[in-house]
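name: query_chain
kind: protein
chains: 1
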Amino acid sequence: MENADHIQSVQITHNNAETPPAIPLIVAIERATSWRKMINSLPAESKLPQTNAAGDSVGPLIPAQLIFRAININMRDIDLLKQEHPDASSVRLYMSIPDPDFPLQICGMLVPVDAQNNDMLTRSSDANVSREDMLQKEEYSTVYDFTQPCPTLCNTTSPLFDSLNSVEPYLRYTK
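structure:
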């Protein structure tokens, strides 16, 4: 990671239908590092630069150990989502804060997306279902909350978690 301040722009090409698109590991590490730097640079007060009215240094808005880094999604849940929505062409992840009293516990809400790139937010139902029921009852919703945030469920030894971590344990060597 020679220059983490300059993130490579990577053109994702997807030639093989059997494998998902990937980016180089070094680019992923650079992007994750840049995310943490950006979040850590947000000042605790709205005044910029990171000093208060008295000229004292103001700490970061979010302590480094609490910076939101990732969302863990169980593959079984993805498989179930695919089974329930076979016509979806993709899934969209919306960021959310489930409890305003814990604003740093960021989670994701997954929504199936149709071929026209529209969110599929509700199930098909009969015309007798009220608008209120469609909005308030989970049996009509196709917005899923089965993610787990990091921090909470993290791999703290990953080089994507912290730029000081070694990438060596994660490299798979072939002969």
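note: Confidence is low (pLDDT under 50) at residues 1-8.
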